Amino acid sequence: MMLFLIVFFNTFGSLMSLFNRMVKFFIYLLLIGLTVSFFIGIAHEGFYEYFVRIMDNLHAVSIFKFISGFNTIDIDQRHSLANANPINPILTLLIFSSILSCISYKITKLQQVNR
Fold first, then answer.
1. Cα distances (Å, whole numbers) of residue 42 to 18, 38, 39, 56, 112
2. 67-99: per-residue pLDDT in tens?
3. Is there a smaller number of Cβ atoms within 10 Å at the N or the C end of the chain?
4. What global pTM score does this model have?
């Protein structure tokens, strides 16, 4: 998880270094606004139910269960995580870390060519 977070923020920082100050300010402002509005919205029960309904219609639960490793948790027994498999999230994080590393490498090379 730490490797993924380090590579993610490194890639994000490399991407942000391609923009000038004004564009960075607007991107940061947009990200902060979206985060705050999402958490305010998810605090309301109606938005939460709508979000859950969208995820059910997209059949995203089975994908999230596969990625997280919690494949056979019954809805009535959410608190018992006896059947958690740590290999799936570890492989997923390693794959995403390698993809982000390649993106960060390409952005760094682009910055070196521009100089």
1. 33, 6, 5, 16, 42
2. 666 655 555 555 555 556 677 778 888 999 999
3. C
4. 0.64
